Every structure is written in structure tokens, then in C-alpha cells.
Amino acid sequence: xxxxxxxxxxxxxxxxxxxxxxxxxxxxxxxxxxxxxxxxxxxxxxxxxxxxxxxxxxxxxxxxxxxxxxxxxxxxxxxxxxxxxxxxxxxxxxxxxxxxxxxxxxxxxxxxxxxxxxxxxxxxxxxxxxxxxxxxxxxxxxxxxxxxxxxxxxxxxxxxxxxxxxxxxxxxxxxxxxxxxxxxxxxxxxxxxxxxxxxxxxxxxxxxxxxxxxxxxxxxxxxxxxxxxxxxxxxxxxxxxxxxxxxxxxxxxxxxxxxxxxxxxxxxxxxxxxxxxxxxxxxxxxxxxxxxxxxxxxxxxxxxxxxxxxxxxxxxxxxxxxxxxxxxxxxxxxxxxxxxxxxxxxxxxxxxxxxxx
Amino acid sequence: xxxxxxxxxxxxxxxxxxxxxxxxxxxxxxxxxxxxxxxxxxxxxxxxxxxxxxxxxxxxxxxxxxxxxxxxxxxxxxxxxxxxxxxxxxxxxxxxxxxxxxxxxxxxxxxxxxxxxxxxxxxxxxxxxxxxxxxxxxxxxxxxxxxxxxxxxxxxxxxxxxxxxxxxxxxxxxxxxxxxxxxxxxxxxxxxxxxxxxxxxxxxxxxxxxxxxxxxxxxxxxxxxxxxxxxxxxxxxxxxxxxxxxxxxxxxxxxxxxxxxxxxxxxxxxxxxxxxxxxxxxxxxxxxxxxxxxxxxxxxxxxxxxxxxxxxxxxxxxxxxxxxxxxxxxxxxxxxxxxxxxxxxxxxxxxxxxxxxxxx
Lengths: 357, 360
Fold this sequence. Notes:
Chain B: It is a multi-pass membrane protein. By secondary structure, chain A is α/β, with parallel strands linked by helices. Chain A contains 11 helices and 14 strands. Chain A has helices spanning 3-20, 41-56, 72-83, 97-106, 131-145, 160-176, 193-205, 219-227, 256-268, 296-310, 338-342, and strands spanning 26-31, 60-65, 88-91, 111-115, 124-129, 150-155, 181-186, 210-213, 231-236, 247-253, 275-278, 285-288, 321-322, 328-330. In chain A, strands 2-1-3-4-5-11 form a 6-stranded parallel beta sheet, sandwiched between helices. A 6-stranded mixed beta sheet of chain A has the order 7-6-8-9-10-12, with helices on both faces. A two-stranded antiparallel ribbon of chain A has the order 13-14. In chain A, helix 2 (41-56) packs across helix 9, helix 3 (72-83) packs parallel to helix 4 (97-106) and helix 5 packs parallel to helix 6 (160-176). Chain B is mainly α. Chain B has one domain: ABC transporter involved in vitamin B12 uptake, BtuC, CATH 1.10.3470. Helix content of chain B is 70%, strand content 3%. In chain B, helix 5 crosses helix 12 (284-294). The radius of gyration of chain B is 22 Å and the shape is globular. Chains A and B meet through helix 1, strand 2 and helix 3 of A and helix 4, helix 7 and helix 13 of B.
């Protein structure tokens, strides 16, 4: 007998067993790329897991495995969860894409939710958040607050998600401050406090008095605090321990409503494969408290910008916007298509430096 | 007064006893750790060591042991040759990465050609890549007397940067919507290191690991080169009188270790991992050092040690998801294994003796 057949039979046997015993709790598995205590990306996914538990009480059972490397280890962890009777599995990192699809093929009755990817199947949904909406608000504050006109940006990997954030922040910083320049450092990690601190220090030495980060630790905040006179923004999580300064605001990933909704869909048997990309409007992206370190008028403008994005009245990528090489990307009044945004591999005009290839 | 007394000869008994006691001590200390974390220690130990082999779903985990253990054994066998001769290659992780890059590079270059020779060429390229990367510290040592520990270790970080650059540039999947990472070789039949028999976990890398074990055993016990390696480790001066050329030994040991690590990387990237990605390497090159020592640098010992480490990885994952143990506790548990091994290893070369205080 083929492995696939064995696994499928096992999965079906389990599936039948769960349906037969209606009292059995719905089992939801979570695969995390970092430790739950990272204070950023994985921390927020875990908060949402806890929210699912709170919402459904003993009607749900959640399990998770943290710090799972992307690749064959992820595939094994997912398989193991499915074998153990998980009904729904959230795989919360881009690198889990192919493993998720592989495992989903073997367990047609288990539902999978893959974060930030683009491959779907009958039992695989994808979801992601429009963090670039939050980046627009950050860019506005950064551009208004900088005195050296130098904003430092700690990038993780040069992938569309990160490049989109840089472009969005830059466009909105330039809108309020035409002289602002971005200095971008690539850390090649999502979570490495030592590397992130080094990157922050380098940027501060080069004159940056605002640090934006697309990495998950609070190390850049600590570096900014030591340097003094530098402001930062919480990433993925509020990072409130650095309030009111250096951390003046934050982008918070709020996965809880989505996770609760999808778990409910599985319980009620209404789950379908979908592609979700929500932003400020749906509450998936939140802007953490803007502290008093930010002047009153800047704060009001930032909140107004947030509201206009949230209501759908304004799209952060609205023309005229040129690409870095000067060619036209968006004409006057034109807004970016999701397809272009999802595969974004270019800087907008005005950003110096090249995307690493 | 209790005193350590040097043995005239390393104790044969303790050589074999040490790993066993280390495993038992790890289990005991691990139980205490798990108990402090509020988990039933018996259940935790059973989940880690028993469930992957004999639980309801063992049919899935047993093949996974081969998948996880093969690269460890393959790399550790190569390392053990050098370690025996006092040549310290700490950079197997880098050689593993380069082997994966050269192996996958050849495969991707032929895409989408459907031909039988693609995979064999990838195997050769993977071995050559790892070999060439290990030749850097080897040649530097032979020519300039540099320290191979430092050079090979530093080259790991160079290799990691190369890996990132390849995932983002040259080898990036043109149909990957701008995301980093190469094409998935699992979807390219001529290059796919697939399971030889479905459901067994047996792929070419596992076969290579077994061949390496047997070859190393024969080499060390039946071949003059193996004798030279052992002799150099035990008595470098005597080895020189016996006609051993140290430079040649350095080149051989580092080269073989590099080639085997490169092969492991190539089999991994073409099989279980499937693609070149920024986070492709997960520390096999470093864990293999533990495996080599846990296996007493003996080919058969390494085979067993590789299986044991693979077991703690897989059992550890099960313990995480079923018992909610944190990942750090599992890593700590694995670390304890090496710690106890080294600590108890003292008994191989020393013995405890009661010493009466002499009256003046």
C-alpha cells in the first residue's frame, strides 16, 4: 500500500471517529517559525491561538509547535498534527508554502491555512495582512518627525512583502517631507536580536533619527534608547515596553478575528478555500497607540490617514507614482492592483540603493 | 579522599559504557527538567523515545528517522575521519550548503530537460562542491599553517551569505512571483531525489549514508590509510616515523568530510527540502559533530548515534505538540546529551580512587 493511501485511510478513520463523537473538541494546530516569546510575529499568532481557545472554550483544543524550520521539518510537524487528529492547521510562515501543499494532498479532510503564500488547494486557504497600510501611517510620522532627514529601515529579506512596506513608508514620508532619505539595511533574518541591534546602530551612526524595522525583535528599540533622540516603531507586536519613547507607535498584527472565524467555519462545516488579504479596515492591521512624543498635529494627521485608509477612501499606492528608474508605474489617480503589489520587486522613485539580487 | 587517577590505557569498557550512561543521565536530568515544567516526566520521556518507534503512527515516524538521520550520519562519518587524526573540520554546515548549491545548480541548469543523467551529474556536482569548499581550509592549513577550526567555521557564514544571494538572485524561481527560493526540485522528475520505495523514507541519501558507514569501517580497519589516520591521532610523532605525510592526510580528511557533507546537502535539497531557500540549512553540519563524538568516532557508533539524535528530534516535535513542551526544553535536552557524554568520558581515561591522607 502506498504511504498516501495509508495516511489517507488513517486520516479518514480519524475523521470518521471525530464525526461519530460529536462531543469531541475541534482540534486546531499551529506551526510557528519562531519562539512564542519572540515578542513579534510568532507572539501575535500565539495570542490569536489563545483568543481561539478563549472564544470556544472546551469545544476547541489547540496545539502548537514553535521554532519549526521551513522545509522537511515543517512537513513532518504538519503531518504529525494531522495524524493526531487536527481538523484545521494554521501554518504561519511563507516558507511553509510547499510543505503545506504537500501535506494537504495527503489529508484531504484536514483544512489548512497558510499565511502570506499564494498556493491554494481545495483544503488550503491563504491569508495575509495589508501591512503596507500601516507602513503608510508610519511613513507619515517618520517623515514629519525626522530632523536629520534620514530614516533608517531594517529590512529582513528583500521579498515583495518587505519591499512593499519600504515603498509605502517612503511615499508617505516624502509627502510630508520632500527632503527625507531612506537608508536601508538588510538583516537577512526575521528574528535575531544581535543582528538587529547592529543594524540599528549602523543606521544611527549614519545619521538616522528614525528607525523603521521589518524584523521582529525589540533589539532596535533598545539600541535607539541607548543612542537617545531616536524614535522607533513596534513591529508585528505593540512593543509597548519602549513607550513613550523611543517607540512612538506600532503596527500590530491582529490575527484573532480571522482565526476565530475560520475555526467557527470548520466547526459549522462551512469552511471553504479562500484567499484573504485584509488590512486596517477589517482590523487585521492595527496601529498601536501614538504616544505623546509625537506632536499633537502630526498625531491627528496620522490618525486621519489611518481612518481614510481603513474606510477605503484612500489607497496608499495612489498615482502619480514612478518606479525607481523614472518610468511611470501609476498614473494620476490610479491605484495599484493587488497582483502587482503581491509580486512587488521594485523601489519607487526617490529611494536610493538597489534591491539585493 | 576521592581522587581521579589517570589510567595507563583508556578503558575499553568505559569507551562503550559512556554513551549508554550519557543517554540514561540525559533521560534522568531531562525528567527533572520536564517535571519542573509541570509535565509528567515518564510521559515526556516515553513520547520522545518510544512514540516515534512504536506508537499508533510509527508507520510514518520510522521512515522519518531515516530522512532526519541520513544527513547526520553522512556528515558525521566524514568528520570522524578527520577528528581521529586530530584534524578539526567545524565547517561541515558550510560544505553542506555549498554541496546543495552546486548540486541544485546543475539540476536547475538542465531544467526542464528530461534525462537520466541529470541526477547522477547533480550527485557529482554536490560532492565536488563540498569538497572544493573544504579544500579552502585544507590548502590554507597545508600551505600557510592556518588553523582549520577557524577557517572552516568562518566559511560557514560565507556559505550562508552565498545561499541567501542564490535564493534571491541566480537560482530564484522565475515563476515564484518575486519570492526568494528556487524551483522545487520535487516537481522536476529528472532531478528529484525521490523515495526509492514509497513510504519507506529510503532515498539515495540514506543509501549513501549506509555505504559511507561500511566504507569508513573497512577503511579504518583494513586499509593502510585508515591505519595512518588512527596512528596520527594517537601518536603524531610515531606516525611521522611510519612515513605519514601530514599534509596529505589533512587534504584527504578535510576533502572527504567536505565531499560527504556536500553530498548530504545535495540529497537534501533534491529530496526532502526540494528547493534552495534562504533558510535551507538547519544545522545538520553542527549537530553531526555531536553525532560523531556520541558515536565514539566509530562508523557503527555513528550510525547508532545518528539514529538516536534523529529520534530526539522527531520525538521532541511530538512532545511539543502533544504535551506543549517548549522548543527550548527539547533543545536543552539534546544539549545535555553532549554535556553528559563529555563529562562521563572522563572515566575512559581516568579512574576514581580513594586516597588516604598521608600522615606527616
